Amino acid sequence: MKTPVGTLHLLADGHVLLRTSFEEIEINAQEIKRVRAIPVISDLLKDYFDGDIEAISAINVRQDGPTFSQLAWKAMRKIKAGKVLSYADLAKRAGSPDAVRAAGSACAKNAIAVVVPCHRVVKTGGALGNYAYGLEVKEWLLRHEGVL
Description:
Blueprint: E1 2-3, E2 6-7, E3 9-13, E4 16-21, H1 41-49, E5 60-61, H2 67-77, E6 85-86, H3 87-93, H4 100-109, E7 121-122, H5 135-144
Parallel strand pairs: 4-5, 6-7
Antiparallel strand pairs: 1-2, 3-4
Helix pairs in contact: 2-4, 3-4
């Protein structure tokens, strides 16, 4: 789907979003059906990019990963639109206050960008930190949500 920051590719299993990427998603499966839009998911993402910054919270997601990453991704989904959280606070919310590097790693390995909002996680002190799709995309998303 076209967005103000580039084409966002989606992979879903029914109404559960499995992956998003601003780059082409490589899939080696024969049962994949390419479509222009995924019911419900595409509509909610369109609503988000059109200004309803809470819309993405209604999208069901699933991604594989280690236990701490699962807890971190769940905590990311609880960050309210228009707010940010530090990597240290994310580690604390994921149940391991000393796991700040693991929190950063969970952000880096997040396969469902935008919807599992790792862009809302910043460095202590407010510096943006990194983002897999570039700081300009992270900055745009945070500006869109009214953080910047």
